[in-house]
Design goal:
Elements: E1 9-14, H1 18-28, E2 34-40, H2 43-53, E3 57-61, H3 69-75, E4 81-86, H4 93-99, E5 102-105, H5 110-129, H6 132-135, H7 142-158, E6 167-172, E7 175-180, E8 186-190, E9 193-198, E10 201-206, H8 209-215, E11 221-225, E12 228-231, E13 235-240, E14 246-250, E15 255-258, H9 260-273
Helix pairs in contact: 2-3, 3-7, 4-7
């Protein structure tokens, strides 16, 4: 583990409210086995702190400005235990129970806090029994990949029905970029990643194209090919290209392949708007 000593659990406290961070600090005073590595007042600080301190555990607020707790979870790497803290967010409760180590509903009670920590301790006791090969992770390992996928699924589960993504968060090292979906030109599948094209630049994100498609508004974004999703508003024309294939020409003259099924989807959207 990454804590200061083998028997301690290194933790981050992430909440935009000072009072909420203070409550957690006070509750943790009775648990010397938890070593607080840092406190963060927003999601950007949290992403940076995870890289710097490599915590074992994060107390993560859900509702924060700019980057939410879901966004942070998508951006961090490694097998990190997460306890969500929230004052509300009814949509996410089921997701917390299934995916997170635990969640704490504010105001946080002492018994409920103790129960959450017991679950964390049990998790790390099990990890100590495992082999070092099972415990160790890297950015390209199956554990890291499953963490990213879990975060993506969690964020999707927490969204209310028929509410689509308004922005996409992308991490490059310690730098975090927020891409409004309205400014997204197209999405390209690249193995286990997607390339998000906007304003002539591309941003790589570890996510499947099927997963991002589920979060995009189908009235604006169309799956034109197994490897491409396009912002319909960027398409200026469709041109034939060889036998039974076509190209979508975008406003910036980008040319994207269109499959037969993709062409049918484009035609359906055109007919709906006619």
């Amino acid at each position: 583990m990454s804590a200061a000593t083998e028997n301690k659990i290194g933790a981050l406290i992430v909440d935009d409210e000072e009072l909420a961070r203070q409550v957690l600090r006070e509750l943790l005073q009775a648990h010397p086995e938890i070593h607080v590595l840092a406190e963060c007042a927003n999601g950007f600080e949290a992403v940076k702190a995870v890289t710097e301190h490599k915590p074992d555990l994060i107390f993560l607020d859900v509702q924060m400005p700019k980057l939410t707790g879901f966004d942070v979870l998508e951006l961090i790497e490694g097998d990190i235990a997460v306890i969500f803290t929230t004052a509300y967010d009814q949509y996410a409760m089921k997701a917390f129970e299934v995916h997170a180590v635990d969640y704490l509903l504010k105001p946080i009670g002492g018994e409920r806090f103790q129960s959450a920590l017991e679950r964390v301790k049990h998790r790390f006791a099990e990890k100590r029994k495992a082999s070092s090969a099972t415990i160790s992770t890297s950015s390209g390992s199956p554990t890291a990949n499953s963490t990213v996928q879990r975060a993506t699924e969690l964020a999707a589960t927490a969204r209310p029905p028929q509410q689509y993504l308004e922005r996409i968060v992308v991490r490059d090292g310690t730098r975090v970029t927020l891409i409004p979906t309205a400014k997204l030109d197209y999405v390209e599948a690249q193995d286990d990643y997607i390339a998000l094209a906007t304003h002539g630049a591309k941003h790589l994100k570890q996510q499947t194209i099927a997963s991002i498609e589920a979060g995009l508004d189908p009235e604006r974004f169309v799956r034109i090919h197994r490897s491409y999703i396009v912002n319909f508003e960027r398409v200026v024309r469709i041109e034939p290209y060889g036998k039974d294939s076509r190209l979508a020409i975008l406003a910036d003259n980008t040319r994207l392949p269109v499959s037969r099924a993709g062409y049918a989807r484009l035609k359906t959207l055109l007919d709906d708007r006619a």
